[in-house]
Amino acid sequence: MKYLPVLTLLTMSSASTIVFAAQQISGVVENTKGEPIPYAKVAIVNSKKVLLTDEYGRFTFTGVDASKIELHVSAKNFAHQNRKLVITSDNRTSVNFVLMPSVMEVVDVHATPLHSSTIESALPVNVIASDELRTKQASTLGETLKNEVGVHSTYFGPVSSSPIIRGLDGPRVLITQNGLDVGDASRIGPDHVVSTESATAQQIEVLRGPATLFYGSGAIGGVVNVVDNRVPKTLDNEFNYLAKHNTVASEDEVSLMGNTSAGNMAFHFDGFWRDGDNYKIPGYAEVQHDDHEHEEHDEEHEEHTGEKGELANSASKSSGFTVGTSFILDQGFIGFSYGKSNREYGIPGHNHGDEHDEHDEHDEHDEHDEHEEHEEDVWGDLTQERLQFLSELNFEQGFINKVASKLSYTDYQHKEIEGDQVGTVFNNEMLEARFDIFHNETLGWKGAWTIHYKTNDFEAIGEEAFTPPSETTSVALAWLEERHFDDILVQLGARVERVEVTANNAETHDDEHDEHDDEHYHDEDELKAQEFTPVSLSAGFVWDYQPGYNLGLSLAYSQRAPSAAELFSNGPHIGTNTFEKGAVYLLHDDHFHIEQDNIELETATNIDLTWRKFEGDFGFVLGAFYNQIDDYFYQTNTGLFVETHHEHGEEEDHEGEEDHHDEFSEEGLPVYVYQQRDVDMYGVEAELIYQWTSNLRSNMYADYTRAKLKNGGNLPRIPPMRVGATFDYVAQDYSAQLSVNHYFDQDDVSQYEEKTDGYTLIDAHVNYYLEGVGNDLVVFLKGNNLTDEEARVHTSFLKNVAPLPGRGVELGIRGSF
Q1: Read out DSSP for 170-216?
Q2: How confident is the model at residue 303 (pLDDT cuts 50, 70, 90)?
């Protein structure tokens, strides 16, 4: 019954249709030489009416019922253009558009309620789509995006990798699918896979900087929005396919995606399958440093362990499908989808090379050693089911011009398995509803109100359940307005939330887990609910100070409520090989005690400046940001170790004890604790694009993030400075790309954190286009890490046991009908 108001509002927003009178708007789209631009996209803003120009650049809309409208025109390799029109008295209006050439790919952004593109946003935005997305696509979202400006990867092995935006990840970077939270456990720990799939995505958008106005406090560091067509919005008919094989992991992948229609009903289906073995690496997997490592990285102080040339326990397999349908209206759509995905993957870093190497010297024990190694393997087994309901209704008369409704329900389960035994099970149920209500322009201002509700029921069950069962509920109201003052776009917004995080140990678990749960959560009945009221305010400005140039300025005040894991974690985390303590546990005199009245909202004050040139053969995006964060939650290494009953093979009785100081030892799992400190984060980002000839283009970029504690010291796992370049050559039948990325040494490290050496990665990609098979058929060949460089990711918990893959070749085909 608690969801009845949400469903009622959703139904009401989708329950009407309107009959419109007939009016006509026609025009021509040309370039600066007066030549027509065919297949340019012309759309009526806040309407489902979209046309493509014909071979002469012409378009005609009929059946438009409004005295004032706004047209949006876009075309590949041209800057977008918007124009407001007043319908003439004879109901026929004609207009011509002249688009300026642009070396930058200008893409519309779906992640913001109000219309914008990559060059019209006050906040910097990355969008990858079409061929670029297919070229960069990897088995994880983090690896797909890791070469975007300002974006790095957590890299927890080849199949568990999340995006890091400007040094922020976890609960500060929201991962969404069509604007709704993916509902997995990837924000809890780096060993948890992001459940959304890039193989079936249309485009992926990255909002760098606080996006709390749009998505809430979980987006204080940014948003990654995966856009797909699982709920169709048009009656288009298409079919896309991809098949590829790579040598570095002997991995095969197939994906299919299709849309069709019958009458006013649109149908969608997609599916993917991926299966890979342990991946190849240059040299040894594990590198151990002695005490001299903290002073320098000389090879004489390093000891290599483990098997050479392969990362043990890095194999994976995954599959999934989605079906969806929509009823397409003249002024919108109503639709839903169902998707299911399964992933099984090894979690590297749990095979101790020293032990295995020693046994390998004795051939008679080989079979026993293989069994022992298998018993130490740790696997993740993920299953997720997801329902989405989306609707959009546009109104050409009245104060309200559009109502967009979004609802999702996600049922997620993740098992951590040691050998043949299930160690921990993570269950997560999430219900989210969002309603964006748009109004027509009033006194020059247009905008939207958002009503946003989300509830998240999470539990971890098992002997290594490091966080207690919890429920997080948030309700929010947001208001965003924008207005053009000649060449300046002003955006203002505010959002207020109510967040309640409750830890609950009253639920009954399986008998086999009860005793283990009591060991870590015997004092959990004393944990009380935490309530927060985060507030976010934002002002954005985009100044088109001359044709082809603009300046973007964003000022934001954002607050974030901590996650349940940041507050209540208390136990060993098998995936990361750590013992985690939440912020309600304070360390005093070598033991922890509960202190719940010291938790504060995380509060960030952010300024972001972006300068763009987007017309002509030379373009650039230069940016700088400063982020002052008070009461920042972060996980730090205490330098202490814990030996758990799991490590000893026996159980210890801690019933009735509040602290665990008697567990500390000289070895075992390192103890990491969440704490709050004031932090300064700042950085610069740059991207330069030059079209040398009609065939050759280059793209150079760089990014740098610095994160310091105000009381001295550095934040852990901050990405190093990076520079990169790509060179693209396009001919009639083929295209080729060469990319070089250099990561500098990272020596701005926190206490107990090791420095990381820099490295350079070189990749190459060739596409060959075949005609006569469908709309297009592409045979592609890609080489990764061509120099077989040993590369260790500083932001990864596994940097000393899991380097990046070595040299690999990928061969595949893709196309469409």
Answers
A1: GGGEEEEETTEE--SSTTT-TTSPP-S-STT-SEEEEEES--HHHH-
A2: low
Sequence-separated (6 or more) residues with CB below 8 Å from residue 248: 279, 280, 784, 805, 806, 807, 808, 809
Question: What mean pLDDT do residues 482-506 have?
Answer: 88
Read off the tokens for 547: 């044709």
Q: Which two tokens stand for residue 646?
A: 């799991």
How far is C-alpha 638 from the chain's CA centre? 29
Helix, strand, coil percentages for the chain (3-state, nearest 5): 10, 55, 35
Q: Where exactly does CATH 2.40.170.20 map onto the chain? A: 125-816
Inform me whether the pLDDT recorded for 355 exceeds 70: no
Whether 327 and 268 have beta carbons less than 8 Å apart is answered as no
Which candidate, 570, 465, 565, places its Cα nearest to that of 509?
Answer: 465
| 254-283 tens-digit pLDDT | 999 999 999 999 999 999 999 999 999 998
pLDDT band at 460 (very low <50, low <70, confident <90, very high): confident
3-state secondary structure of 496: strand
C-alpha of 595 from chain center:
33
CATH topology of domain 125-816: Maltoporin; Chain A (2.40.170)
Q: What are the CA-CA distances from residue 99 to residues 34, 76, 79, 147 (Å)?
A: 10, 10, 6, 30
User: Tell me: the pLDDT tens digits for 371-424?
Assistant: 444 446 888 899 999 999 999 998 877 899 899 999 999 999 988 888 788 888
Q: Packing angle between helix 366-376 and helix 353-360, nearest 10 degrees? A: 170
- Residue 336, judged by CB atoms within 10 A of its CB (0-12, 13-18, 19+), counts as middle
Residues 6+ apart with CB under 8 A from 603: 557, 558, 559, 560, 629, 630, 631
Tell me which residue of 83, 122, 60 sits closest to 542, measured CA to CA: 122
* Rounded Cα distance, 652 and 63, in Å: 76
The first and second tokens of residue 801, run together, are: 């046991």
Spatial neighbors of 772 by CB under 8 A, at least 6 apart, are none
Q: Averaged over 447-470, what is the pLDDT? A: 88
Q: What tens digit of pLDDT does each residue of 555-575 get?
A: 999 999 998 888 888 888 876
The pTM assigned to this predicted structure is 0.86
What integer pLDDT is reported at residue 779 of this predicted model? 96
Which amino acid, 745? D
Find all residues with CB under 8 Å of 459, minimum gap 6, and list them.
426, 427, 428, 468, 469, 470, 507
Token pair 């992926």: residue:
204
Structure token pair of residue 25: 């708007």
Per-residue pLDDT reduced to its tens digit, 168-220: 998 999 999 999 999 888 888 787 888 888 888 999 999 998 888 889 888 99
Classified by CATH at the fold level, domain 4-99 comes out as: Immunoglobulin-like (2.60.40)
CATH 2.60.40.1120 residue ranges of the chain are 4-99
Question: Of 227, 290, 281, 238, which Cα lies nearest the Cα of 261?
Answer: 238
CA distance 737 to 744: 23
